Amino acid sequence: MKILVPVKRVPDPATTIRILPDGSGIATDNIKWVINPFDEIALEEALRIKEKQGGGDVALLSVGQQAWQEQLRTGLAMGADRAILVRADQPLDTLAIARVMAKIVGDEKPELVIIGKQAIDDDSNQVGQMLAEMLGWPQATFASKVEIAGTKCTVVREVDGGVETLAFELPAVITADLRLNEPRYASLPGIMKARKKELKEIPVDSLGLDLAPKLKIKALAAPAKRQAGRKVGSVEELVGVLHSEAKVI
Amino acid sequence: MGDVLVFAEHQAGHFSKATLVAVNAGIELAKKRGGGKCIAVIAGENLDGPAGELARYGMSKVIALDDPKLAHYLADLYAQALSALAKSLGAEYVLATATAMGKDLMPRVAARMGAPMASEIVSIGGDGTLVRPLYAGNALATVEMDGPIKVVSVRATAFDSAKPGDSAAPVEKAKPELDPAGLKMQFVSFNEIKSDRPQLTEARIVVSGGRGLKSGENFKTVLEPLVDEMGAAMGASRAAVDAGFVPNDLQVGQTGKVVAPELYVAVGISGAIQHLAGMKDSKTIVAINKDEEAPIFNVADYGLVADLFKAVPEMVEALKKVKHS
Predict the structure, then answer these.
(1) Looking at domain A2-223, which CATH architecture does it have?
(2) Which of A57, A169, B176, B197 sits between 20 and 30 A of B146, alpha carbons compared?
(3) A189 CA to chain B: closest CA distance, Å?
(4) pLDDT digits (tens, 9 = 90+) for A153-189
């Protein structure tokens, strides 16, 4: 089966985010960049499906700058077969990103797209759903279990208050939640092999799409910093202040 | 211009606090966008009762998309019905709370209409500009959207819920526009996770445990009595989840759940950035940790440097006394 896994380059979740003084963005010096953790889970799931089926094609897709090659190489080292980087140096909003992905899906014709439920930088949680709508495909967001039998797919999803099971025919878009799996690490032979795998670049302008952003970030600000409170000396005192001062119990 | 269409999610005719938050935010946005109307839409089957109930919450009108085909929520089906309605009304905004359903549905609605979407807004500026968190709340972005129609989801913890009034808005029934060729998803089942405890994202009090608990067994025997004594939801740090003490769905943090309860009690949690991102908007934060240098104390309103295995059972007893006094 052909599976497409879109991946995004994001700051490592353990990075302290610092906002530039003029509010135009975040300071990117000294940031360690990684594959978005949810996209890593999506990739792991694609690899497991391929392994279970005893073959197939897992392609990575990024829409971004030259430097994103690094994360694509990491994904190839984890086991993806090839990678596509749609080179775009301008800022794109989620709608534009989904449009680019829909175009690539049209060319590549995968039977399944698995993507992280959200990127941990802009936290939008939109692209998978938008892509599904643009393609006219079923979607299963926040997946915690995926089962495929022929062209039939059953997904268990994490929803408020429980889990929901959906069924549909492929092709489809699935978005990965935390519980879906635990991603593997790239092995040393994997890293060696990744160097020789195909990484195709496509200039975004060659796709002929309307990519003018409809959502613009006007300014970034740091949230109000929380003041450290005070230490209390005993459990008695703690319960006392929670009752009479904070009035929360 | 300026009309806001609010998608009012319901569970078998009942409205959660989260839905009433969307109604309130929709009324505020309509007001700030030049005095447009706030119209609520409810979808499903046999909606007379729920639509009437919803109409008491201060919007201009309630539209009920009443159709047996809408009995079960499905993203492709609902996206069709909601975007067709928004277009026919000429609404400027379509808005919902960022619940699991809202998160699933609204981007699909946006894509169907070619509209931009702002996710999980936390405030609305005087001119109707929207503020949303990025980097798990470590940055706040003021965003501007272009186009005749825009989609917004609202963070449930960032706004108050709408309050019921004495009068009720008119309720209108409408037939949803559905194209059967576009319906490809099938609902199989919903398994409710039954718990006597409140949901993590809706709870007034959250008690979370970290690696300091040392084992899953200790979560049960040491932490859970405190959770239940406080009527709280139970959470955990990523470290505790990764160590296998508790399942992932309890994880509070950047890659888990973001919570903002009135009281957050962090027990044996050091306070990694990852975790702080998921709980630092809580109203009151309590930290119990034996390491007085733990970063959690930098965000805690009340910190207790103590051995949790001693302090937590003591706290359960002390709370019992407060309750009986």
Answers:
(1) 3-Layer(aba) Sandwich (3.40)
(2) B176
(3) 26
(4) 999 998 988 899 999 999 999 999 988 999 999 999 9
